[in-house]
Amino acid sequence: MTIEYKDIDSAKRYKLMANSVIPRPIAWIVTEDEEINVAPFSYFTPLSSNPPVMIVSIGHKSSGEPKDTLENIRKSKKCTICIADDTQFEKLHFSSKELEKNVSEAKEFDIELEKIDEDFPPMIKGTPTAFLCEFYQEIDLKQSKTIPIIVEIKKQFIADKHIDKALHVELNPLARVGANYASMTQKIPAPKIP
């Protein structure tokens, strides 16, 4: 079966893409305005190491207004991207609920925060790794309800138990696999190339 994307609507395209490009890492993004905003995004990935940037695609609220994460990044030019592990699964999932702008997911769902740098929003306490980022570029996708934002990594926190002296990082991150979540626990060593 070959599906012409021009012949199907964006909801069907999203379903096909989200169920085929798997697993997708989850960015648990913390931003600040009058309240701390915490929200997960699975349209997220590294983009380049020079400059060190990542991209996250942010949709809109059901009302059509920009999500708080997008508004906050546009305003403050900063965010903290946390990579959650399976011990944080329930709170990460709860934080996807759409709340009013003046309501913090951190308070609503008892998500503990930790300030590690005065110049950036706090990270989720217990997160194995977090990226302290600044706004780099917004991409205008004509007629799209999704806004891709590129952020530049300025600093990275990695819990000591997750990194060795050679900078090998061992994580057990949560990811989206189609409509479901998955924990990336199974490791398959790469075979030696002849």
Describe this structure in words.
The protein is an alpha+beta fold. The chain has a domain at 24-158: Pnp Oxidase, Chain A (Roll), CATH 2.30.110. Helix content is 15%, strand content 35%. It has helices at residues 10-20, 68-76, 89-94, 105-108, and strands spanning 24-25, 27-32, 36-41, 44-49, 52-58, 78-83, 113-114, 123-124, 129-138, 147-158, 174-177, 180-183. The longest helix is centred in the N-terminal third of the chain and has 11 residues, at 10-20. The model has no long low-confidence stretch (mean pLDDT 89).
User: Radius of gyration, rounded?
Assistant: 17 Å
- Give the H and E element order: HEEEEEHEHHEEEEEE
Give the count of helical stretches. Answer: 4
Uncertain runs = none
Q: Decide which structural class fits the backbone.
A: alpha+beta
The 3D shape can be described as globular
